[in-house]
């Protein structure tokens, strides 16, 4: 039978593909910054979950050929959705028997539009393959949904004066022809397709070792100018931030740490092991809030992926709340103070309260309410169950789901089981009911939290984070 063209995501029905699981992507590319020309080969190791007469890949660039188990395969584009590539192998694929798929392709990603836009960002010195929820289609064929994670080898050949950055550990660089250098990156932990990234251009790269022994790779666009010191003063503290988050969430789940700062993004994204930040986050000085936010995603969103894109609160609500926890840790206002200030600062009639963090719809997936009201929902849960149970819920969730994915429904079930309480008044009110909740995130203790000083500095940083994220499209 043919594999399904999607996994049935309620927001993006065409995302992912049915009938197989990918275990590994080997992506081998050559990129020319002057022309934005990308060419290469991706080898996919997968296992069919049913007998398949054909299967789909998600991809937008021109395909030269596909081989399945070393035999040439027929390739067709779905007329209704050109990112759906239908591959028909010479012989049907048997359930449970490993399959090797090799795709050879080339194109100019910045000239390829999907649904009216391109997520690939051509820059003055290279390119950025960084975006959410979709980016893979512009640089490698995949089963593009967070529920099918895989390990990765990413090898990119670029001119000698250009850097090629990606996820995981740098296994080395090498030269096969004059004037070109190949950068080889390896990710050994399961990773979602949208969290795989490329940052190609003129970067200063800094290598160090975290106290934990993990390699740290940070990179800074050489054109950051007077933003460079504040960017470094923030991103170089990544191991310190990770140590703090480990004290709350449990062991760091990956093989490397770091960050990339660029001028050309307009937002920040939690690419696995190495978040990418727009330089604008550091225009007013150091900004540890955004570093905390993106590194909290290494647990909430990366290690434990969302089960469907409507579960975005599991990513953004907890990463935003981690900013509150860092503020409390740093002595710049308790989580209760920040939550109460945020609740009080937004009028009841504001459209903010009409967006539901538990199901915002694809048009509001990155609305500030998903972040801010999402963080208030997390604090309301903490208020309802108490600190001991709250952090037990978080650590249990992250441990049980590590390397996989989860849904809001599963998280609610766990929270109710560990707390021994029925928590509808928290989750229904804060995630799924329009309008400003009558009781604040601190419950009966809200009046005490209201005595906090006006507008904590860390809240101004959080607001700026959302302002930048609003420019994603």
From TrEMBL:
* Presence of keyword Hydrolase: yes
Residue ranges crossing the lipid bilayer per the database entry? none
- Give the Peptidase M1 membrane alanine aminopeptidase domain ranges: 284-430
Aminopeptidase N-like N-terminal domain mapped to chain residues = 23-195
Q: Which GO terms describe its biological process?
A: proteolysis
Q: Please provide, alphabetically and separated by semicolons, the GO molecular function terms listed in this UniProt record.
A: alanyl aminopeptidase activity; metallopeptidase activity; zinc ion binding
Name its co-factor(s).
Answer: Zn(2+)
Q: Return the EC number.
A: 3.4.11.2
Family, according to the entry, reads as follows: Belongs to the peptidase M1 family.
Write the protein's name.
Answer: Aminopeptidase N
**Species for this entry:** Saccharomonospora xinjiangensis XJ-54
